[in-house]
Amino acid sequence: MKVLHVVGARPNLMKVAPLIESMAAEAAAQRRSIEQILVHTGQHYSPELSKLLFDELGLPKPDINLNVGSGSHGAQTGRVMIAFEEVLKEQRPDLMLVVGDVNSTIACALDAAKMGIPIVHVEAGLRSFDRSMPEEINRILTDQISDWLFTTEKSARDNLLREGIEDRRIHFVGNVMIDTLLKHRDAAVLRGTHRRLGLVDKAYGVVTLHRPSNVDDPCGLRSIVSLLVKVSHDLPLLWPLHPRTKSQLERSGLNTSLSRSNITLVDPLGYLDFICCTANARMVLTDSGGVQEETTILGVPCITMRDNTERPVTVTHGTNVLAGTHPDAIWQAFKNHPHAAQSIPMTPKFWDGKAAERIAKILLN
Ligand code: UD1
Predict the structure, then answer these.
(1) Res. 61: pLDDT tops 70
(2) What is each CA distance from 47 to 9, 42, 51, 243, in whole angstroms?
(3) How many whole angstroms from 44 Cα to the centroid of ligand 1?
(4) Which of 113, 139, 272, 282 has the highest Cβ tally under 10 A?
(5) Are residues 26 and 164 in the same domain?
(6) pTM (2 d.p.)
């Protein structure tokens, strides 16, 4: 059996690592031979968004690099499609696995669908119901053309059934990103990264912000930055800057006002350092999908600076509060976070470190 895995952007790497490992382990247990090919589209190419994570997660070096780089959505998606079609022609896999919702996910899925290669979508069915998000378009379309849809939470099956996808294609298996978190958590927490950055256990917050809707509009970015400066007078903040956000802050001249705040700006952290800083934080303010999930398992109060979440289980079972993007609402969430005094999250079903094992069993049977 020849299986081809695709990674493109940072959040894909944590999801693919346990899949490759579990597919190999399940094949060995069944005494079957399996060839796994890893393709990196190169959507993310900066070392701190890609190479460093490969090393930390123990991912094998990609067998094929497409080096597509950045660009507009059309250009980036198109470049992946053109390059990846050649890979599929040459490799002819029995199965192609894509994860998440980035441009590389839909580009590779489209190629495979047109060549009749069975597609597995891991993290299927999540919906923000906000079609202005590029990821929402990528999710809906990838799910429509996938053959196996592996879901992380109950809402995902409901969404897929509503969109006309047959029940037999949907498998509720849990969350592969949490597999990776649980595997590395204990070692990560002990790294002391936050202390090296001058921060004290549970006496600081972590910020991540990269959604185009939050950072591309200078006005919106300015009001979020003012709010974060205000928060930092109550709680010092650590803010690892995504390249998109960094360039927008520089462009709008906001980096100078930040340098006079109680916010520590750093380059994107490696996976283990980021988990260390998150786990030891008192609170996290984010617009990332994955961070909402990670804080739920780490039991760290999370404020999501978005109007919607495609991951509602992090609100109903986890530590997440959906605050919206208005500074007053974020401030209220900061001051009155329900999990701030005592965090008692319920673990969402199957977020137990075994999601990739379940996927491997289903695919190899
Ligand atoms: C992408 C994903 C998003 C995911 C995020 C995680 C899509 C539509 N978006 O958004 O879902 O949450 O990755 O980080 O696929 N850049 C670098 N180095 C890199 C990559 C990008 O400097 O390695 C810069 C480029 O200037 C680029 C900008 O960051 O224009 C944005 O990168 P891009 O891949 O377009 O989208 P992300 O915002 O990273």
Answers:
(1) yes
(2) 12, 11, 5, 12
(3) 6
(4) 139
(5) yes
(6) 0.97
Same domain, 102 and 190: no
Q: What is the CATH number of the domain that holds 266?
A: 3.40.50.2000
Burial pattern 114-144, b for ≥16 Cβ within 10 A else e, equals eeebebbbbbbbbbbeeeebbbbebbbbbbe
Ligand 1 pocket by Cβ (under 6 Å)? 9-11, 43-46, 49, 70, 101-103, 134-135, 210, 242-244
Q: Cα torsion for 289, 176, 151, 9, to the nearest 10°? A: 50
Q: Do 18 and 76 belong together in one domain?
A: yes
Task: Please tell me whether residues 120 and 191 are part of one structural domain.
Answer: no
Spacing, Cα 244 to ligand 1 middle (Å): 7
Look at residue 343 and tell me if it is in a domain: no
Q: Give the position, in ligand 1's atom list, of the atom nearest the Cα of 138.
A: 8
Clarify whether 184 is annotated catalytic: no
Q: Are residues 106 and 18 in the same domain?
A: yes
Q: Counting atoms of ligand 1 from 1, which one is nearest the CA of 211?
A: 38
Catalytic residue among 44, 210, 337, 339: 210
Residue 360, beta-bridge partner list: none
User: What is the chain's mean pLDDT, rounded?
Assistant: 96
Alpha carbon nearest to ligand 1 atom 28, residue: 244
